[in-house]
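ok so i was messing around last nite and threw this chain in just to see what happens. nothing serious, just curious
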Amino acid sequence: MHKKVPTIMALAAVYFAGVPVANALLPDPHNPTSAVAFHNLEIPGLECEQGLGYLKDTPIWECDGVTIEAKSGKTYNEPNEYLPRQHRAFNYTSPLPQAVVVDRGQGLYHIEDFGNITVALDRDGDKYFFHLDGPDAAQYAERIEVHA
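result:
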């Protein structure tokens, strides 16, 4: 047997035994949390873990099994035109949703289809979107408010 083989075997044993020990000693990794707010849209009092791919301009939150994505855009089309298209884009589907766009007042609109909800705030051509996906998406969508 080559002289280096026992040394290599000993190092490998230390390495492979050390990984589970180190894993047991280190705390579980957690993403930071932040308020669920984007431009003039917010869910008051809700703070959730930032999701994978969280960016300031396109934040994502994970809230007890509900994923909330935010995005902004600019269009002068009517909500009945742009909201179904944006909902389709969030869902990565081809067909437009058949659901009706609901006017919630204050420039706030929503559409629910494919088992999830997209909410839009329309401000003079600027559009701000929350897309909610998960078992309690409707409960979170109802709490969305416009703030100054």
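not much to say yet. The beta strands are 33-38, 41-50, 60-63, 66-74, 102-105, 108-113, 116-123, 126-133, 145-146.
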